[in-house]
Amino acid sequence: MKKISILGSTGSIGSQTLEIVSEQGDIDVVAMSCGHNIGLFEKQIRKYHPSLVAVWEEKDASDLRTRIGDLQTEVCYGLDGLIRVATADAAEYVVTAIVGMLGIRPTIAAIKAGKKIALANKETLVTAGHLIMPLAKEYQVPILPVDSEHSAIFQSLNGQENQKINKILLTASGGPFRGKTKEELKHVTLQDALNHPNWSMGRKITVDSSTLVNKALEVMEAHWLFSVDADQIEVVVHPQSVIHSAVEYEDGAIIAQLGTPDMRLPIQYALYYPQRRPLSGARLNLFELGQMTFEKPDYETFEGLQLGLDAMREGGNMPTVFNAANERAVALFLQEKISYLTIAEIIRASMEHVTKIENPNLEEILDTEQLTYEFINNRW
Ligand SMILES: NC(=O)C1=CN([C@@H]2O[C@H](COP(=O)(O)OP(=O)(O)OC[C@H]3O[C@@H](n4cnc5c(N)ncnc54)[C@H](OP(=O)(O)O)[C@@H]3O)[C@@H](O)[C@H]2O)C=CC1
Ligand SMILES: CC(=O)[C@@H](O)[C@H](O)COP(=O)(O)O
Ligand SMILES: [Mn+2]
């Protein structure tokens, strides 16, 4: 049996990881965590029998203990709880399906405990990639990409590190507002932004896809995962989301991974790599698809993409400022407290405000996050 822990089992990636567990039948979930959705969490605990679980708040932990008093499962909470789940003794893999920078410390703890990381939580690499990647090397644990584009790149590289490549072609759907002008984006609603054309995902990443901030985060994620510079990563808008990304080799050959928009494949690939396993579900039918199209991104209208690339080029703690500002701005947008275009405005203002730190350590990254939040809280 393969033994795994899941950080964020109640979310989109977490739930699909559990679908893989059910379908494959040879994975044991030894520990898992959620935030606040303890109704769904209880059902998952009863079905998958982890021996350790964590929730975010103490009151939810005590509620959950009452709900599952008939089981042997230990319930813990808070950051310590997340770290306990991430380092659970029996686990060989940790699926980081939690959203946001909150994933940094549990991921670091998991690496130090020698766990293989199936990484969905891109915010951790964006903000702390310079700490995470060397740490993973030191502890000899693989960071296996779950993000669909990065899994596609990983598959196109055939798992071999240090292959000489010309560039990565990172595909983007373009989101629900592809082709719109800035003027037209002034009055789009939360429901409009949550209406992704191809993928069904958590709310935060769905908004990120609509602003193309997701693509900026993914460029940074690819930089850390595959040791490529910014100018070797080309964002290609591909509205059908069929080519999940590609690699151009030195001889001009382009190798890509294609498929239906189904995150279960990259999750399964990460957990079984280098093995491929059967997987249920719809197959890509090229005749039904008919055609694939490609466009350049509109960096002016989707300012978040340009700001992310600027933050990456600036380096230091700027990706953290970019990411933290986006996390807070998207949270405000999800609460319908700010308008859509204010997301990019908040990111830009934060990047102008927060002082740059070269090569930040973990404490400085977390301080930068707090400073960014304080700046935003005082102004919006
Ligand atoms: N969804 C997708 O298809 C893809 C997602 N990703 C990345 O994967 C990560 C997860 O995304 P997704 O599954 O969509 O997100 P969801 O919002 O669907 O799920 C997030 C998970 O994190 C948990 N969580 C949130 N806040 C806390 C907290 N304070 N303490 C503990 N747990 C918490 C949630 O718990 P609860 O709901 O119980 O509060 C939930 O289990 C993100 O980094 C995203 O960018 C990458 C590629 C594709
Ligand atoms: C499924 C997945 O990996 C998402 O990150 C997806 O890429 C979002 O699509 P776009 O950001 O390309 O709209
Ligand atoms: Mn992606």
TrEMBL record:
Protein name: 1-deoxy-D-xylulose 5-phosphate reductoisomerase
EC main group: oxidoreductase
Binding site for 1-deoxy-D-xylulose 5-phosphate: 122, 148-149, 173, 196, 209, 214-215, 218
Alphabetical list of Gene3D superfamilies matching this protein: 1.10.1740.10, NAD(P)-binding Rossmann-like Domain (3.40.50.720)
Gene: dxr
Enzyme Commission no: 1.1.1.267
Pfam families documented for this protein: DXP_redisom_C, DXP_reductoisom, DXPR_C
Co-factor(s): Mg(2+); Mn(2+)
Catalytic activity reported: 2-C-methyl-D-erythritol 4-phosphate + NADP(+) = 1-deoxy-D-xylulose 5-phosphate + NADPH + H(+)
Domain DXP reductoisomerase C-terminal: start-end pairs: 258-371
Reported function: Catalyzes the NADPH-dependent rearrangement and reduction of 1-deoxy-D-xylulose-5-phosphate (DXP) to 2-C-methyl-D-erythritol 4-phosphate (MEP).
Residues annotated as domain 1-deoxy-D-xylulose 5-phosphate reductoisomerase N-terminal: 4-129
Molecular function in Gene Ontology: 1-deoxy-D-xylulose-5-phosphate reductoisomerase activity; isomerase activity; manganese ion binding; NADPH binding
PANTHER family per the UniProt record, alphabetical: 1-DEOXY-D-XYLULOSE 5-PHOSPHATE REDUCTOISOMERASE, 1-DEOXY-D-XYLULOSE 5-PHOSPHATE REDUCTOISOMERASE, CHLOROPLASTIC
